Amino acid sequence: MNTTSLAATRIGTPRRSSLGWLAPVFVLAAMAALPSVLSSYMQDLALTIIVYAIFALSLELLVGKAGLISLGHAAFFGIAAYVTARLSPDAAAGSIAVLLPLAVLGAGVYALAVGALSLRTKGVYFIMVTLAFAQMAYFVVHDTPIGGGSDGIYLTLRPALEVGGKTLIDLDKSGHLYFFALGTLAATYGFLAMLERSRFGHALAGIRVNEQRMRAAGFNTYYYKLAAFVIAGMLAGLAGFIKATKTGFVNPEMLSWHESGAVLLMIILGGLGSFRGAVIGAVAFVLLKEFYASEAIFGAFAHRWQLTLGLTMILFVALLPHGLIGIGQWFANAVGRKPARGKAGPYGEKK
Q: Is the dihedral of CA 51, 53, 56, 60 positive or negative?
């Protein structure tokens, strides 16, 4: 690989501080301490945030790192949830070692089929094809006995992990479920951070900025994008497995375009081009939704939380075009300081 092509793969990958890992570790430690101080309701809300943070990270790989805007990402989220519920036995707890790989694999297989076809299109056509595939999956589970119709499927017993007759993880216990989900979030974030720094991640950055140049440099960009699509789908399936386990119930709405739109809003709210931004966006979105839907605060108007949330999103996008992760730069501009010269934006452009 020559110097020119190597430089091309590093386009849009800003240099990070050697101490940049401290913030995620600090946040992880803080979240690990939450169950000891939170009520059961707040712990359930924190678990919801963790699930959507994993979901947002999976889409960030596609949108922020590969430049592939998908409106059908919820299909992989929902398919994994349905696989978990459908394959779980009724008389005993299913095995995490069996159900989790099958759920992730089910999402990955569908992602491979969708990606293989949709990636032959570009721009708005790609967006519409991914949406069409997601809606097709939605109507399959909605209109056929496979997914229990509009009533969905209940998970009788949550999965567990047994080794040598001893239960190591029992997801029916709230503490086990919380720390399992938190560990999954940490593993997902760590995996994506390493992927971003790998040759594969640099190639995705180059494809996002200038795909034609990457093809000229000898990269088969189609297979790089397909690999990213499948990985993102499998990670969304990971979130779907935890969601099904958490709620004990799955329904077709998990595959709807509303769910795809919500997770897309999360990564926009947090800041495109950053895995940290995806997590921040998931936290902000879930908390804002919970806040606006609170009848104790807004009374009867809480039933119109979509309106207030939508107006808030518009305000955030107008004031923070780079998302919540760019709030430091926004504050610097607000107080009259100029941002650092040569700072990279969310897509690697110089400001």
A: negative
SS3 153: strand
Question: Is 57 within 8 Å of 278 (Cβ atoms)?
Answer: yes
pLDDT-derived band at 340 (thresholds 50, 70, 90) equals low
Q: Which of 11, 71, 73, 351 is nearest to 207 (CA)?
A: 11
Q: What is the DSSP code (8-state) at residue 293?
A: T
Q: Which H or E run includes 258?
A: helix 257-270
Residue with tokens 């499948």: 230
Summarised one tens digit per residue, pLDDT across range 250-265 is 999 999 999 999 999 9
Tell me the CA end-to-end span of the chain in Å, nearest whole number. 29
Question: Residue 150 contacts by C-beta under 8 Å, 6 or more apart in sequence?
Answer: 142, 251, 252
**Rg, the chain, Cα only:** 21
The tokens for 314 are 């518009």
Query: For 333-347, what is the mean pLDDT?
Result: 56
Given a contact cutoff of 8 angstroms between Cβ atoms, the answer to whether 182 and 32 are in contact is yes
Under a CB-based contact definition with an 8 Å cutoff, are residues 154 and 249 in contact? yes
Q: How far apart are CA 118 and CA 134, in angstroms?
A: 12
Closest CA to 157 of 68, 89, 100: 89
What CA–CA distance (Å, rounded) separates 14 from 125? Answer: 30
Residue 24 burial class via C-beta count within 10 angstroms: exposed 0-12, middle 13-18, buried 19 and up: middle
Separation of CA 328 from chain center:
24
Tens digits of per-residue pLDDT, 13-69?
Answer: 444 444 556 777 888 888 888 888 888 889 999 999 999 999 999 999 999 999 999
Q: What is the pLDDT of residue 1?
A: 44
What number of other Cβ atoms are within 10 A of residue 311's Cβ? 11
The DSSP annotation for 70-138 comes to -S-THHHHHHHHHHHHHHS-SSSPPBHHHHHHHHHHHHHHHHHHHHHHHTTS-THHHHHHHHHHHHHHH
Amino acid (1-letter code) at residue 44: D
Q: How far is CA 230 from CA 104, 114, 224, 225, 315, in A?
A: 10, 9, 10, 9, 34
The CA distance from 197 to 21, in Å, is 13
